[in-house]
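Protocol check, entry for the methods section draft. Step 1: assemble the input record (protein sequence plus ligand SMILES). Step 2: submit for complex structure prediction. Step 3: store the structure tokens unaltered in the notebook. Ligand used here: pyridoxal-5'-phosphate. Step 1 record:
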Amino acid sequence: MSTTTPPLSAFARGLTAETAFDVLAVAKRLKAGGKDVIELQIGDSPYPSSSSATRAGKAAIDAGQTRYAPSLGLPEFRETIARTVRAEFGIPAAAENVVVAPGAKPFEQFFCELFLEPGDAVLVFQPAFPTYEPNITRRGARPVYVPLRQEDQFRPGLAAIERFVESDPKAKAIFLNSPHNPTGGVATRDDLKAIADLVRGTAIAVFSDEPYCHMVWAGRHHSLLAEPGMFDHAIAAFTFSKSYSMSGWRLGYGVTSARYADLIGKMINTDLSCTPPFVQLAGMAALEHDAAERDATMAKFRAKVELLVGELGKVDGVTVLMPAGTFYVFPHVEPICRRLGITSHGLAMYLLEGADDRRGVACLGGECFGEAGRGFLRFSCAEPDDRLVEAVKFLADAVTRADRVRAYLDANSKYRLGPA
Ligand SMILES: Cc1ncc(COP(=O)(O)O)c(C=O)c1O
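Step 3, stored output:
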């Protein structure tokens, strides 16, 4: 028998994915072995799924809402979503502008399939959500990275967008993410107005990723889709994962022109068929009944973020901003990395695996979000308050243990920091 196997596609061979899920797997393995791990690595909620959603989801299963549904989403759910984004964000949407999918993430692929051709250039601010790049390269297009900076509060720079649009002959699209994972940066209304003015009437498309729309800690959330003319240029992606603690239900939606929404419906038809109807009915109940519960949960996240920022700010070698949004804290730790000769993701893995035999802290190095993240750590805040305080104490102590760092680097030389 021949031993030949089919060669993998270049895309499959080069595929990268979210490191958070790898670190999650290590954390779970260590926990199963008896280690006490404070888990601040993944952007998930520690709270139960929204209560009306849970009730409605169960009732919908009992009522037989368990078969195929329209690819674009249930008409009554699309209507409810349109009403909600009109009221909450001033997005002038009707039901025809809404398309439902399993989470916000699938819209990265739909957007790329809608607009990108091989060779097209796509501006992506970095640090960046790790699945943007594979979705861009899947179409043979090319990400053009522009750094976000702590000194600019990690807001997307208009000048960089202008330069990209004017100077790259293959400029085709922009990925925006506000509030931003992992930095917590938020684009202001003025930023979005300026971006809208720049792209309106051009051939540029924008993916506006807005999963953290209810986690803005100063002022309120603004969507690019609320700016005039943006339905013809942009797709905004929203999710129930963060606002309603429903990450495992897999439910999100896109808002855009009816024409683009219909095309995305066709894409869903060709791969997913539809989003489960009982999940949609759960989401509809959350939108109709759980705004107060959601806001109470958001207030808890905000208090946790403030606590974590306050504690991290006390550690020598750490510079940390209060994020303008999201439940992530993104401290600059480069002086610590330099002193210890370890990369920032190495530092994260040392805190998890190497610093102590019985306890660990799971977080991510900023480079999990691209080169521009180097020198930073990302913490989510999905643990009780006392554990957040303990995690920072653990970090402060662990970085003084040069002997343990040395031993960890001897066993994991890939985390050694090269010359500056
Ligand atoms: C920036 C960003 N986009 C998309 C997603 C994916 O959201 P969902 O789980 O709803 O697909 C996340 C989740 O962490 C995110 O941070």
